[in-house]
Please model this.
Amino acid sequence: GENVEQHPSTLSVQEGDSAVIKCTYSDSASNYFPWYKQELGKRPQLIIDIRSNVGEKKDQRIAVTLNKTAKHFSLHITETQPEDSAVYFCAASPGTYKYIFGTGTRLKVLA
Amino acid sequence: GAVVSQHPSWVICKSGTSVKIECRSLDFQATTMFWYRQFPKQSLMLMATSNEGSKATYEQGVEKDKFLINHASLTLSTLTVTSAHPEDSSFYICSARDEASGTSEQFFGPGTRLTVL
Model:
């Protein structure tokens, strides 16, 4: 079945700097890759997603890139702010609409 | 739109008892819902796919007789943890896809924190 690896597990950046989180997946049939932000004790919130027929997508300070050949996808956050501090999860959907999540990245933005 | 609720938000029970968690799609219909379990500081692990009107599909390693799933209507799925033990203590989250939207996005419920004493 699908397996998703996510790195790094923790990331600290200075406010205003960029943050990059990387994921790899194993199942070439996966065709949808969402990124979620989760604050402590709360539900995951979708922040951006990308389909397999697209290489890059951007939404203001957030962007996602996908390399299907290498089975890599990455989240880029620019001009980080303290409120960006949270746990971020990538996921891959290998069909039947189910998600397999990565292990998560705890992002801390230092003011 | 696309709101998913869960009830209860937290529950404490004694070892050996059963606990039922409800997941509802409030403003859309969902023939498919998903149940996840999340231990502290860990990722969301997919437990099963709940299918309206048919049996759930469980992920490898998840005991179907322990985690009973019922999806009797297009807006409600329930997860029953039978004979709960302390190791079942976790954060249980459901999600649903709004099929009418044509997108793959899943909308998550707020989660249920289960503590088994």
Chain A has a mean pLDDT of 95. DSSP finds no helices and eleven strands in chain A. The first strand of chain A starts at residue 4 and ends at 7.
